[in-house]
What does this fold into?
Amino acid sequence: MTTTGRWRVRSDPRAGRPDGPDAGSLPRLRELDLRDLGVHDPVPVPPVERDADHRIEAAVGGDDPVVVVAAPRLSGGTLALARAARLLLSDHHVVRPDPAALGGSAPLSGPADPALVDALRRRPADGLVIWLDGIGPALLAALLVARPPEGARVFATVDEALLHPDVTRVAPGPGVTLIRLGPELSRAEAARAGTRSLGGAVDLAPARALLLGRPGPAGRLARPSRRASRPSLAPARAAVLRAAVDWARLGVPHALPTPLLARLALAYAREMPDDPPAVDDLTRAVEDLVGTSSGGRGVTRPLRRLRLPDGVHHVPDPLLTVAADRLGRDGWTPPERLGEVVGDLLGTAADRADRRTVGVLAVVRGFDDLAAALLRPPPTPDGPTDLAPTEDYRLGVSSLQAGRAAEARRWFAAVLTATPDDGSWRELRARAAFWLGLDRDADPADRRGHLELVVRDGPPRDASDAALLLAGLERDAGRFDAQRGCLRAAVTAARAAADAGREAEATLDLAHLDRRSGRADDARTGYDRVLTLVGPDEPAGLAAGRALAELDDAEPEDGPEAFVPAPLPEQRGGPTGPPLPRSGAGPSTPGGSEDRPTVPPPARPLP
It folds into this structure.
């Protein structure tokens, strides 16, 4: 059933709507505190005024039945929408269904929250507001094309990350207003707010303590087990919450019953430094978290259990997901088991869109290994199309490290396709091209073009490696004049990188080529240079010493005329473009620079 049909069925006057404006026990907006609408403590007084407040007020006071405010978590989106609703629609009745109950595998098309069903059936004459705070990707897609019945309006808030073009592909339909708030305060907003920062006043320490398995002021959760002989359940609770939080952050559109949650939590527990808890401890931790309520503000109920038609769902407190996002890479990396479970659940052709959504959200959250396993790289039709070039590069590195070389090549090719060759993306393009240039099975012309790009735009050490690889291609093609030019470029780049070992390697190859071509004097000069660079005890120095002895013993020969090396692209000067992401790996760089990710030297080509 369509979303529109769902609204109409539940709001059909023939379904038993009573006469008159009886709204039962539904409160009016003016009777609710801002906290009741999802605004976290402490509520700022006076509230931070955002530049978009006037647009939100205009939408709330307008005629569109659906208003969605998208903003990063704890950045004032719920506060702005709640203030506008209470100000302009104070007499309207409000129903607050659980968004998790509406945004599962069948949003708004299966049995909905009973309170919502009853409210739509009654539909008070002075207006009904359906309030949804923190909706998921499936419910967002449904609301953007929804048409609530006359007299009912939907106000919703959503994490801005879900508006990624590869996550939410539908545009707002007629009667839907979508307003976005930026993640940072503008200069005018900061001036009005004084020294306050977005979300900085909300205390996330209790949520972090739960996720990290530390004792904390969270009611019964902070106390040890009832039996002194039992170990603390804190690590088990942390593993359970991490699994549930990642399931929610990735928007996995499948139920998370207790057995599956416990099995996933076991994989998370094995990644923790302490002894992993047993499965029985994890199952007990699930029940303990579901039955816990601190009775105060903040993380009031760490885990909620929802029994829906498609199974039992476990939904973490929203503050836990915020705390996990704030921890970032200082928190944890999802275990491989999570990717296996999600891949199995979303393995059919009918689940391709959901699989892409989960994979792209994994990129947004920084879970590159999980994303690379779930996403099909371009140009596959169901692959993502709107990832940033840096994200394509990160996924290529993750695929390469996982042994999926064919996928890695397609991600690196997507980097080159998505970036202009004008120097603005110089370093990123050079690193992607380097990995493509290592592919021995690629077309020689394509491989040569990729390596030439590295010689021109890559850092000196990478340019030296690429020039050496180019020299091998030219030698195999019988183009010895071009081979000589490549070796000279390798020597120059290695010298610029202050890498004596690489310079010696390139100089030795060049000296060997000079010797074979009859240029004995140039060869002798090259061998002497090798000995100066690395000494006689290194492998290159030993080879240079033997070659010099052989030259001294050999009779002079007439050689061919001097080569005229084919020109190679010179190193491009100027800015290097956007910085590479620190999380990705790339070709090694000189001096162990902290500004560039490092991996072992690219001695092994792509299979």
